[in-house]
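Structure request: Carboxy-S-adenosyl-L-methionine synthase, Photobacterium iliopiscarium.
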Amino acid sequence: MASHDNIFSTPIAKLGDFTFDERVAEVFPDMIQRSVPGYSNIISAIGMLAERFAKPHSKVYDLGCSLGAATLSMRRHIDQEGCEIIAIDNSAAMVERCRLLVNAYRSETPVQVIEADIRHVDIQDASVVVLNFTLQFLSPDDRLALLEKIYAGLRPGGILILSEKYIFEDERANELLIDLHLDFKRANGYSELEISQKRSAIENVMRPDSVETHKQRFNEIGFSSSEVWFQCFNFGSMFAIK
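Returned structure:
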């Protein structure tokens, strides 16, 4: 059973930037379920999309895999000869725990878990690439280059699945969706102190884009099709097909 997330439950004199360290890795399943509306639906559907798009003798990438929820969902669904999943994260604490979780389940589809910076990893012969709440933690200056590298490494007809927190250009709509997300966190037991402290810690490291910005990038890079396939409040997931 996942440990309860109480990282921000007491006053912290000096709040640093949010990092995916050992403390976060330990409580991550609880944190993500209580913080990201629709997370379980997204994870389940990533497996279904991978089942549809994964090709024999191709690679499937989970970039920013954290504890491997998307990786495990895809492995449960993929049944293609010679297909390999490569899960990558730059957090040693996440990678260590991800390997334990991956090794706990036997499967015909092999999984390689790598500790690395996804900006410096080669994407080759991919039929599926997943960025599940990962791109938003990269510097905005690095996002286009990574997406271009993913596009270049995708087979024709391959899919990129991109889950993100969104901002909205309509200010009134944006504020309403932010408020609904805060209500979601309150309903899941987070106190006002926890909500406030986490927001302060994360605001310098997570800079969301709008749906329009994502679509514009996809078009600029050359993806043939892209759309939002899931949204709950200001969180959602998109696909882009080469």
